[in-house]
Hints:
By secondary structure, this protein is α+β, with helices and mostly antiparallel strands. It is built from 4 helices and 3 strands.
Amino acid sequence: MQTLQQLVQAFRLYAVCEPCQRVKCVDLPALIEHEGGDYPIDRVRMRLKCTECGQRSQALRIVYVGPEGRNAGFRYSRAPQDPTPDLL
Ligand SMILES: [Zn+2]
């Protein structure tokens, strides 16, 4: 089972709401701080809830960004990157 710690090394996690086509980048470093690195991705999925329509979509996109993405991900001051529409 994949955990947050494994993902944060080289992946970005996007939550997808299919009814309203929203895509939101999950803040993995913040999530690890709250839940710990052993927190399973499946449990993140179960907790997803769209802030617009209130649907529990449980849709996650896991995008490989490479090991160098780790540094960017841990830079808290940096604004969250909006995913491009291509990811849908
Ligand atoms: Zn929605």
